[in-house]
Amino acid sequence: MSLTIKFYREKDEYGCFSNFAAFPIAIAGDLWPTSEHYFQAQKFLDEADREQIRQASSPGKAADMGRDRKRSLRPDWESVKDDIMRAAVRAKFSQHAKIRQVLLETGDAWLVEHTANDSYWADGGDGSGKNMLGRILMEVRAELVREQEGSV
């Protein structure tokens, strides 16, 4: 059984795995302050909504804006959200060598976003959640390992 690494708050050990961690990402010609900003903005088709979220003063504010149902959620959100998260995580760890190394150094550890606040992206606090962010981090880690092996 491999090691389990739990993460949640960006100031904790492995906090760089949090979408709230201050690592800007460039995707499709736009610079996003955090992967959380990018992810939340992609919930909407309206360019003005996306830009307001991109400009949010913190990832927490971006998350609040993304959860605001006064904005019109894109109709395909449930079917695209995992791929959007995957793109954000891939960009973050491809564009920042320091945290890419942290991710690679976790080896084959099971990565778990540990919080009772979320049972889809995290473990639900008791292990009953889907832990999709942790799963995507492990997928991206495997991709990065393959890339590294291919360049040797």
Topology (elements, then pairings):
Layout: E1 4-7, E2 25-27, E3 30-32, H1 35-41, H2 47-54, H3 59-66, H4 77-95, H5 97-104, E4 110-113, H6 132-150
Parallel strand pairs: 1-4
Antiparallel strand pairs: 2-3
Helix pairs in contact: 1-2, 1-3, 1-4, 4-5, 4-6
Sheet bearing the most strands, described?
A: 2 strands, parallel
Order of helices and strands: EEEHHHHHEH
Considering DSSP H and I runs of 4 or more, what fraction of the residues is helical?
A: 40-55%
CATH topology-level fold name of the domain at 23-107: Tetracycline Repressor, domain 2
Order of strands in the sheet with most strands:
1-4
Q: Using the alpha-carbon principal axes, give the shape.
A: globular
Number of extended strands = 4
Question: Which class do the helix and strand fractions yield?
Answer: mainly alpha
State the fourth-level CATH superfamily of the domain at 23-107: YbiA-like
Q: What is the second-level CATH architecture of the domain at 23-107? A: Orthogonal Bundle
Q: Which residue ranges are poorly predicted, with pLDDT under 50 across at least 5 consecutive positions?
A: none
Average pLDDT over all residues: 96
Question: Distance N terminus to C terminus?
Answer: 29 Å
CATH class of the domain at 23-107: Mainly Alpha
> What is the radius of gyration computed over CA atoms, rounded to a whole number of angstroms?
15 Å
The number of distinct helices, counting runs of at least 4 residues, comes to 6
Q: Estimate the strand proportion.
A: 5-15%
